[in-house]
Amino acid sequence: MNALITARGITKHFGATKALDGVDLDINAGEVHVLLGENGAGKSTLVKVLAGIHGHDAGTIEGRASLAVIHQELALVPELSVAENLFLNRLPRRFGFVDRAEMRRRAPELLRKVGLNVDPDAKVKDLGIAQQQMIEIARALDKDTSVLILDEPTAVLTDTETDRLLEIMAQLRDNRVGLVFITHHLDEIQRVADRITVLRDGRSVGVLGPRATTQHMIELMVGRPIDEQYPRARQRPGAPLLHIQGLTRRGVFEDVTIEVHAGEVVGIAGLVGAGRTEVARAAFGVDGYDHGTVAVDGKPLPRHNVQAAIKAGLGLVPEDRKGQGLVLTATVGQNLELVTLDDRDEKRLHDIAGKLRIKGRVEQPVKELSGGNQQKVVIGKWLLADPKVLILDEPTRGVDVGAKVEIYELINRMTAQGRAVLLVSSDLPEVIGMSDRVVVMAHGRVAGELPKGATQDQVMALAVQEIPA
Amino acid sequence: MSTISIRKYASENGALAGLLVLALVIALMQPAFLNAQNLLNVGVQAAVIAIMAFGMTFVVVAGGIDLSVGSIAALAAMVGALTAGPVGLLVGALCGLVNGALISYGKLPPFIATLAMLSVARGLTLVFSEGQPHETDELVTFLGSNLAPSLPLPLLLMLAFFGVTGLILTRTNLGRRMYAIGGNEEAAKLSGIDVRRNKLWIYALSGLFAAAAGLVLAGRLGSAGPQAAAGYELDAIAAVVIGGASLSGGVGRATGTLVGALVLAVLRNGLNLLQVPPFWQQVVIGVVIALAALLDSLRRR
Ligand SMILES: Nc1ncnc2c1ncn2[C@@H]1O[C@H](COP(=O)(O)OP(=O)(O)OP(=O)(O)O)[C@@H](O)[C@H]1O
Ligand SMILES: [Mg+2]
Known about the structure:
- Chain A has about 475 residues and is an alpha/beta fold.
- Chain A is about 35% helix and about 25% strand.
- In chain A, helix 12 crosses helix 13 (about 370-385).
- Chain B is mainly alpha-helical and about 300 residues long.
- Chain B has one domain: ABC transporter involved in vitamin B12 uptake, BtuC (Orthogonal Bundle), CATH 1.10.3470.
- A two-stranded antiparallel ribbon of chain B has the order 1-4.
- Chains A and B meet through helix 9 and helix 10 of A and helix 9 and helix 10 of B.
- The structure holds adenosine-5'-triphosphate and magnesium ion.
- The site of adenosine-5'-triphosphate (ATP) has 22 residues of chain A, from strand 2, helix 1 and helix 13.
- Magnesium ion binds near residues 43, 44, 72, 151 and 370 of chain A.
- Chain B: Keywords: Cell membrane, Membrane, Transmembrane, Transmembrane helix.
- Chain B: One of its GO terms (cellular component) is plasma membrane.
- Chain B: GO terms for molecular function: transmembrane transporter activity.
């Protein structure tokens, strides 16, 4: 009756891979339809078929609705301004030239809609990844569309922005827009879903109602129950392995001191812009700093020197997999071996690929993998290097619930072998559940430290602290 | 073999298919093309560009470009003629090192740094030669000679450089790092790859290969000329691109470049055999380069 788009029996092959196998999907006006499934289940492929980016081998798509899609991988032009990105393709024009005044007038309006507080003239490449995601969302909102598809928009967002986005989605639903929403965060699904289609290995294995339990969702998508979402196995802490002392970069972070001991997982929580990623990058030698020291296993590291940091036993899984983590032109295997080129070990490489359950062959181009599986490759590269201390910056972005548990088990194994992990994460349940203690940062400083068992409210109370006068 | 792997094989060898079609068309129009002596000639003609293009492949895979190879070839040959061949090689590698240093430590775009070197190396060639051609010594002349009546050394050298290039690209850490740096420099840096030092070696290799190509050319002609190899950098780049490498980095193979160089040589030879006027030859070559690049980009979709 009010179906805007009706897809029946959609089948899609990539070479020998059957990415979609007879999938049905209805998109109804005034409804949030969630697509749920493991990494590589075919969600993004289905979206791309609906959007006409990929053709399909069999099946029918009916209904003519104007469609806007926010894709899983960001599609902004880094060198252009926020405003120019917002109106890309349909820049307001006057006498044949771009009408900058009109653009500047309309941009703040759109930015306000998504609650983003940035200068419309700022270059997109100077913004954080969460802010970039919000710009993508704002851009999609400007068009008058009857269907909006969002492919894992919340993977890079923190709670505040996610809340804002879910509110916007609820408003759109009330305005009779049909929404398709993909996420690996089951709590978000419970908050907005009207209907949930679960995909497994390219097939639709069930349609659930809005009141489905997380256990039910997990069983349907993974094929087995998961008892413990955060299976942290604590170790008795040993000698300090990573010592960040009084680290300061003027205007970015100040006097940050963090110590991580052998066998420990220390979490760093905080809002976007609190300086967590910046501290992690400075410690690893990617960026410089003004004062302070970083020592690994008692030995101080030279500033701004990644090679020395790696030699001393430090590793960093960066937050932006496409920009900093992966060589997209290379294969899965070539990416995995990047840190360990000097002592390559085929057997361990296949071993790690298996343990992480990377869906894709080692000799396959990494750009053909689904988003979550690409993320596993970035983590695998560093697990192969087996550093004394591994800094993980948002390691499970876009990873499904089952694979997350595998990654947590690998973290447990590292610490059981006397290694240490510094876990930067905006996913509060994760950072609380997997860390032995949580350092909370606010405005570039350490706002406080909480022991195991802290609540989300305690973390947030520290994270939103005002700057001490 | 399944249909998929056949299709994959064909698409990976698009340039090779193009070469075969080209050769077939020319052979049909002018059977003399298939004459053994003519085919050897084609090989020799391809050798200089191919050796230069192999060095260029390293640079392009690593996401750069080297416009100075023609000038470096001329300078190396001239220095070789005035002193000794090996000194020429050394000078070529040094020029490459300077390129690399300007690019990695001076942070100049490769286009600008090597454009400057194009001018400097050509200028030095003119200065040293005082504008005159100079005879090559025995060693260099030998490089351009025939080992046996139907065994030209340039052809063998081309194959040797081909083998070395393939080995470097696929079997050495330097080669693996070229792909990483060209594919995503930031990710390479964060994986502990010393991007700056590796670029130094990559441009030095390109300079060395260009010098070798210059010596082979001079050896063939028996003399080093002040304007030798002018414009060859464009042929080298064309060979690399026809071979399927991407100028945005991270993609490229030794076989592709070899085929690319052969395509250019076959085309020139064929056009001569068919007595196409030289002015028109340029037009045809340009069209073929555009077609090759176009086919490649269609294939990638
Ligand atoms: N261009 C491509 N070439 C080859 N295989 C592809 C391509 N795109 C996707 N695939 C394969 O299709 C399958 C489905 O991928 P898809 O990206 O749809 O997964 P997804 O459900 O979106 O996963 P994720 O949660 O990780 O984003 C995967 O096995 C993937 O490797
Ligand atoms: Mg996806």
